[in-house]
Amino acid sequence: MKTQFEKISVIGLGYIGLPTAAMFASRKVKVIGVDVNQSAVDTINRGEIHIVEPDLDMVVHAAVREGYLRATTIPESAEAFLIAVPTPFKGDDHEPDLSYIEAAAKSIAPVLAKGNLVILESTSPVGTTEAMADWLAEARPDLTFPQTAGEASDIRIAHCPERVLPGKVMHELITNDRVIGGITPSCSERAAALYNTFLAAECVIAKGPRIAEMAKLAENSFRDVNIAFANEMSLICDKLDIDVWQVILLANRHPRVNILQPGPGVGGHCIAVDPWFIVSSAPEQAPLTRTAREVNDSKPAWVIEKVHAAIDAHLMGHPGKTVADVTLALYGLAFKPDIDDLRESPALAIARKLAAAHHGPVEIVEPNIEALPSGLENASLVSSATDSADIHVMLVDHAEFRSSAIPDGILVDTRGVWRHGRST
Ligand code: SAJ
Fold first, then answer.
1. First to last CA, the chain
2. pTM of the full predicted structure?
3. Ligand 1 center to residue 129 CA distance, Å?
4. For residue 27, what is the DSSP state?
5. How far is the CA of 140 from the centre of ligand 1 (A)?
6. Known catalytic residue at 216
7. What one-character DSSP code corresponds to residue 67?
8. pLDDT by residue for the chain (424 residues), tens digit each?
9. What are the structural domains, with CATH classification, of the chain?
């Protein structure tokens, strides 16, 4: 079997699928990108992008112009299919929702042919790749699949979880090691050959897709648990009236300690979601993972309480004033620093709740956006807070805020940007 791929297909052209498609196309592999969203397909076919990711626009533009990348809503035949669709959770029990993967698998089944490779890239609960293999086998009884035919199968199947950091995707796609969990060794080998088209790092082979699935969930849960520890520290230090930022700086001078940074909560659609896949698959065994999620999810409410306490404190010091006279200035809406991505952002959730409840002016400073999203109709987007702002709430430590002067007024600083004595 030849190792070079001439034509592949990427199913799902979002934050992972589009950069991956563009990366293969930049290496002169013909890529058919498939998405259910007609407007995303049209945008990409114009050589433009519908998401924000540094350096992606020029790679997509060049790939479309040179004819290596084309988008469509209907799957076509290809040598390899990479599935990169969302895996959210549903309901109060945070049950994983695999409907996008199931739909993607069923959509490619009719065009599958002997010799094809199918890769699941979406972050998935343990067992999902095997479920996907069964959906494909059910739809194509005329082909053989590795879960039953082993090494002799017509179709190769592997899980290769995406691990790239939003904001650095085009770089990390090339430089991060790839975890590869094929259903059989030759499934892994074929998948590794595909990624080696552009990978500068290593393909690390897992003993099967279940291990690869769990490794990805473990990575994001590890981070969630560690951020939860930092967030819990911030609550404890606030209660004891000591500076958590200095505590962390000092503790991190120990050679085996690396406490992460507290914040207003954990956002994005990965770290705040993936640990639930572990919890739902082994609830009795996962109290720490669950508690970390709960600690991080409860942080926005704590920040809102802090702001309300600050409003009360301000009014106590200004007897002639009412709440309507108190101006709030909120700094940052994005889900993390130096990006414009507002999806699943705790800062945005806090801003919406504060703006809805507050009777006075609310100013929002967010240098990375041009208009406020819905739910902030009572607020105004400003380039810097006015002198009349009374309470300043730091939500996202964008570079612009880290380098600007500490404002006058009451400070609620969820990121340690305005902490006194910044060096230690
Ligand atoms: N955060 C803190 N304190 C910290 C670090 C992060 O509060 O010390 C917050 C951020 O502000 C943000 C959230 O956590 O709200 C998540 O941000 P992040 O930069 O840690 O991670 P993501 O969600 O952008 O990307 C993660 C990455 N996973 C790991 O670093 C283990 C990325 O490599 C994954 O590919 C991505 O999830 C994914 O798609 O799963």
1. 59
2. 0.94
3. 24
4. T
5. 38
6. yes
7. T
8. 555 899 999 999 999 999 999 999 999 999 999 999 999 999 999 999 998 889 999 999 999 999 999 999 999 999 999 999 999 999 888 899 999 999 999 999 999 999 999 999 999 999 999 999 999 999 999 999 999 999 999 999 999 999 999 989 999 999 999 999 999 999 999 999 999 999 999 999 999 999 999 999 999 999 999 999 999 999 999 999 999 999 999 999 999 999 999 999 999 989 999 999 999 999 999 999 999 999 999 999 999 999 999 999 999 999 999 999 999 999 999 999 988 889 899 999 999 999 999 999 999 999 999 999 999 999 999 999 999 999 999 999 999 999 889 999 999 999 999 986 444 3
9. 7-207 (3.40.50.720), 221-413 (3.40.50.720)
- Which atom of ligand 1 sits closest to the CA of residue 15? 39
Centroid of ligand 1 to alpha carbon of 263 (angstroms): 12
Which of 178, 216, 220 best tests ligand 1's pocket when mutated (most atoms within 8 Å of CB)?
220
Using CB distances shorter than 6 Å, the residues near ligand 1 are 123, 162-166, 219-220, 223, 227, 260-261, 263, 266-268, 270-271, 335-336
User: Distance between CA atoms of 369 and 153, rounded to whole angstroms?
Assistant: 50
Q: How far is the CA of 271 from the centre of ligand 1 (A)?
A: 6
Q: Which of 103, 94, 146, 144 is nearest to 122 (CA)?
A: 103
> Active-site residue among 270, 299, 306, 336?
270
Indicate the burial class of 328 (C-beta count within 10 angstroms; 0-12, 13-18, 19 or more): buried
Q: Is 353 a catalytic residue?
A: no
Q: What is the DSSP letter of 151?
A: G
Scanning the structure block, which residue is given the tokens 């639930």? 276
DSSP assignment string, 226-287: HHHHHHHHHHHHHHTT--HHHHHHHHTTSTT-------S---SSSTTTHHHHHHHHSGGG-H
Atom 14 in ligand 1: residue holding the nearest Cα: 266
